[in-house]
Input
Amino acid sequence: MMDSLSSLILARLQYLQDMLARANDMTVCLYTSDGTDFTIPSNQQQCCFDPKVNNNEACKKFVQSAINQAKEEGDLVFLTCHRGLTTAVSPLGLYLPNKFISTPKYYLFSGRLSLKDEEKSEAAGMSRNTFENRVEIIKVIFDLIFSLSLIGELDFVSVETDKQESNAALTGREKEIIRLVSLGLSNQEIADQLFISDKTVKTHLSNIYKKLEMTNRTELALYAIQTLT
Output
């Protein structure tokens, strides 16, 4: 019953994350303290999909370093990754009494974008002030959700080994395609959203089916709800 409840709540959490990311025009993702993402990054920047960058050691080191800094400072921190994207990292549930939490387990990553250079008066990009205000709103929403979950002793992350192993075998792009399939998008709609060809989507799906030993989109959508979200 608890596994089913956790999966259902995570599916709603992913939906909320997607909406907030689109509404605020930034990437949003949730991580555990060991640097593992347990939601699929919403509205991710295209450069993060670059095969030379995605899932490489530099990205992993940045995520873990950002989490360590946010943990040490005990508050929201703003950092710039090796790709020059500004990211806000915040521990969740920090303001709960110690009986509920001693060390933050969950972290919110938001931003991952190029901010407007006020000194150069560049037209493109979001201003620093606007960015910080939007990050604060997103942080408050997720902090409330995670605080209530911790009080109710609900763990968002499954510890089942088979799910962890199957997730580890998937690339970031494959996880994103699975998420879009679960939302009911066609191959062409997925291709349009990710700026790739329909043929590339089909190739990704073929690889996904092989890795997960599945045969159709229905199985994939159920997997997304139960495992990726």
